Amino acid sequence: MSAVIDTHDHSHDEHHGPAKGFTRWLLTTNHKDIGSMYLIFSFAMFLLGGSMAMVIRAELFQPGLQIVEPAFFNQMTTMHGLIMVFGAVMPAFVGLANWMIPMMVGAPDMALPRMNNWSFWLLPAAFLILVSTLFMEGGGPNFGWTFYAPLSTTYGPPSTTFFIFAIHIMGISSIMGAINVIATIMNLRAPGMTLMKMPLFVWTWLITAFLLIAVMPVLAGVVTMMLMDINFGTSFFDAAGGGDPVLFQHVFWFFGHPEVYIMILPAFGAVSEIIPAFSRKPLFGYASMVYAVAAIALLSFVVWAHHMFTVGLPIAGQLFFMYCTMLIAVPTGVKVFNWVATMFRGALSFEAPMLFAVAFIILFTIGGFSGLMLAIAPADFQYHDTYFVVAHFHYVLVPGAIFGIFASAYFWLPKWTGTMYDETLAKTHFWMSFIGMNLAFFPMHFLGLAGMPRRIPDYALQFADFNMISSVGAFMFGATQLLFLYIVVKCIRGGGEKAPAKPWDGAEGLEWTLPSPAPYHTFATPPEVK
Amino acid sequence: MRVQLSRAGSLMAGLFLVPQSALAAWELNMTPGVTDVSKDIYSLHMIIFWICVAIGVVVFGVMFWSIIAHRKSKGYKPANFHEHTWVEVLWTVIPFGILVAMAVPATGTLLDIYDTKDADIDIQVTGYQWKWQYSYLDKEFSFFSNLATSKEEIYNRLDKNENYLLEVDNPLVIPVDTKVRFMITSKDVIHSWWVPDLGVKKDAIPGFINESWARVEEPGIYRGQCTELCGKDHGFMPVVVKAVPKDEYEEWAAKKVAAAEKERRLTSKDWSLEELMERGEGVYNTACASCHQADGSGAPPAFPALKDSTVATENMDQHLDIVVNGVSGTAMQAFGEQLSEVDLAAVITYERNAWGNDTGEKVTPKQILDYKNAQ
Ligand SMILES: [Cu+2]
């Protein structure tokens, strides 16, 4: 790095701008470039995973087998889940973290920029391997994104070893990303930015990063045990060899439950930035928001077996996990109440980020309600592995994680690109997504309660009507996302009003003290926080 | 109370899109079922549902009030409060109290579900890819239960019947007013045995036996499905339970016992080579000839010839293994569970002696039984 301090205009100084051509992206260590790559990659995966969902919904449009065979259908449900979780949602939040955390804490870049580059570039490699399994003999993973043994070991397709390798690479990428986030937040905060002055997005990401470091190795462990069972003759999960198939589920969900919070906590943080901005009123209960997130994160380690109420746990275990799971409703409730109290007696306006954020609160709360119902172990015997569960987790993931990402994207796009996005189109995007998503997922509650199991390619006749509505909603939601692509591309290419440094009058935070678009290097001299 | 709740529940849900008259076809809610347990589960479900509705009304009420009244476009000036200790304490404590109140009945029902003691009948339920086996442990007979819906219906070449995908060849038959204990396990991957009307869902896990129970009051046919992804045909392994009056059950069971007894006599009987050959020819022609041809010439390379094949003339162990366990990844299925010991012995003996294979070796049903038990 040159020693020139960037106080003057140096647009002619090649040394400080991005490199030209492809090497800019391949070799970059700039948090903004890496953030953009994460976001673009995540959106590409969102479209890929989404098109698989379209295949699923097309097959389920009517009873009977029309479009795909059951064996391929299972590969679609599996890949849809894996790609959305590991390819779309997680990288999107890492992209947001890359862009925003340094700007929010007043740091010049992420603490470990070279590792940052490496953790991004591992992802396309991992997904290339994962997606290529679809073209291998015997097909890709077909055992669900939860890949329960022994279906995924003794009975898995030959490509399973590649799947395991891909998971390992993704895990390494996530762990490195998490280390980077922690190092940045711990070491590079501007003078005066104490922990309890950090924006909530930074707080939630800090906690998320600890969750990632805690559980990604567990995921790596469980897939390694699978690898051994498949290729090296061990019997971790093979009852015939003295192993235990239920062990798989314990280890998987010890990772899997914190994982669902990994996908939602950063969205909590983003929404906690956006709601006050458009309510023109400070966030209600900042401290209790921080404690609530911490409580949720801690509790997430002791509830994993609520995914396993039907495996035949001993009654004491069953009760323990039921009580702990119900307990999570308390801090989650606190968060929702705080958001509503923030809006209460504010001066609200409803630009696209706010629309997505408000929809987030409403729909995530509905997902929370069904979660509370699922926590009741006896009732879970009827809900478990039905479409009720599918409805539940799509309500927390689509209007939860994904609406959180959309809200963030619209909120910060002016800062990233220097151009205001097209508000009318963005509102259209919102309403189409909102309607499509509810049409797709609300009827799934009814389907599940009426007895339709999940992960089936064909169903009994009484489920026909709601499935058709659900498919129509899904197609609508899917198609609408192309509009989002158009809005963002238009914005990047400068088609729209020029954005001021602070386009939202109620917004707070260091990022809004920077010009729009944010220069390639920011906060080379740390700002003073009072 | 319960009925009212359920009616109100479907009404609430019905506001979403559905005309009242169509409610029958548009099933919205969980079934209350036909056992005490399933009814308890149903009322837990409705209580927690209404708790959620109540909380939702309050929270969304305040929110929509703000959305409508506190708008910048109406010139509303924002307040500036951002904490309030008492409110924050209250909305932590009150939900906690509600949860405790909810946990009490839930715990009671759970204890009841786990009480599998003092059952009158034990039935072992075994999951296979992709069918169920029911073994009546007190009566010593068992049978398989397969999907009865035809491929024609599944592939839309025929109209679908009313019980499409929820019909089986041999339903599980249980007596009413009897505590039936299910011992649930699996022979391959994990399945899950679910009958909504009985309020029973338990995973079938290889190497484990899970227990569950039901006492059905009303005779009737209750349908469910496998609910744990178990491979390609996971969607095609329904569960059908037929609850019948006690005397009808005894009559049915007696017939099954007699049939099983006959089968056992055949197995233990001393079979001569000729008898086995004769029976084997029949089995071969119905179960094997479609691929391997009546004269054993097969249709290479897809279906190997058995005439002069080393498997059928020399290697006995491999022969047993292929027929009993199949060759995975090929059209050669595992016949071990589909044919009886007698038929397996007969068809293997036939293959080793027909078409000039002439090994003179015979395989007895007893040998097959030992072979299977050794696996
Ligand atoms: Cu199954």
UniProtKB/TrEMBL annotation, chain A:
Q: Which InterPro entries match?
A: Cyt_c_oxase-like_su1_dom, Cyt_c_oxase-like_su1_sf, Cyt_C_Oxase_1, Cyt_c_Oxase_su1_BS, Cyt_c_oxase_su1_dom, Cyt_c_oxidase_su1_bac
Substrates-to-products reaction catalysed: 4 Fe(II)-[cytochrome c] + O2 + 8 H(+)(in) = 4 Fe(III)-[cytochrome c] + 2 H2O + 4 H(+)(out)
- Which compartments is it annotated to reside in? Cell membrane; Membrane
According to the UniProt entry, its GO molecular function terms are: cytochrome-c oxidase activity; heme binding; metal ion binding
Q: Which Pfam families match?
A: COX1 (PF00115)
User: So where does this one cross the membrane?
Assistant: 37-58, 78-97, 118-136, 162-188, 200-227, 247-271, 283-305, 311-334, 355-377, 389-413, 425-448, 468-489
Q: What pathway is this protein a component of? A: Energy metabolism; oxidative phosphorylation
Q: What does this protein do?
A: Cytochrome c oxidase is the component of the respiratory chain that catalyzes the reduction of oxygen to water. Subunits 1-3 form the functional core of the enzyme complex. CO I is the catalytic subunit of the enzyme. Electrons originating in cytochrome c are transferred via the copper A center of subunit 2 and heme A of subunit 1 to the bimetallic center formed by heme A3 and copper B.
What family does the Swiss-Prot or TrEMBL record give for this protein? Belongs to the heme-copper respiratory oxidase family.
The name under which this protein is listed is: Cytochrome c oxidase subunit 1
TrEMBL record, chain B:
One GO term describing the cellular component: plasma membrane
Instruction: Quickly give the catalysed reaction.
Output: 4 Fe(II)-[cytochrome c] + O2 + 8 H(+)(in) = 4 Fe(III)-[cytochrome c] + 2 H2O + 4 H(+)(out)
Among SUPFAM superfamilies, the record links this protein to: Cupredoxins, Cytochrome c, Cytochrome c oxidase subunit II-like, transmembrane region
Cytochrome c domain spans which residues?
Answer: 275-355
Q: Where is each Cytochrome oxidase subunit II copper A binding domain found?
A: 118-255
EC number, as in UniProt: 7.1.1.9
Mind telling me which residue stretches traverse the membrane in this protein? 48-68, 89-111
GO terms (BP aspect): ATP synthesis coupled electron transport
Keywords tagged on the record:
Copper, Electron transport, Heme, Iron, Membrane, Metal-binding, Respiratory chain, Signal, Translocase, Transmembrane, Transmembrane helix, Transport
**Where is it localised?**
Cell membrane; Membrane
For whether the record's keyword set contains rRNA-binding, the answer is no
Cofactor(s), by name? Cu cation
- Return the cofactor note field: Binds a copper A center.
Q: Which InterPro entries match?
A: CcO_II, CcO_II-like_C, Copper_CuA, Cupredoxin, Cyt_c-like_dom, Cyt_c-like_dom_sf, Cyt_c_oxidase_su2, Cyt_c_oxidase_su2_TM_dom
Show the PANTHER family listed in the entry: CYTOCHROME C OXIDASE SUBUNIT 2 (PTHR22888:SF9), CYTOCHROME C OXIDASE, SUBUNIT II (PTHR22888)
Report the function annotation for this chain.
Answer: Subunits I and II form the functional core of the enzyme complex. Electrons originating in cytochrome c are transferred via heme a and Cu(A) to the binuclear center formed by heme a3 and Cu(B).
Q: What family does the entry list?
A: Belongs to the cytochrome c oxidase subunit 2 family.
Question: By what name is this protein known?
Answer: Cytochrome c oxidase subunit 2
Q: Which organism is it from?
A: Tamilnaduibacter salinus
Q: Which gene encodes it?
A: coxB
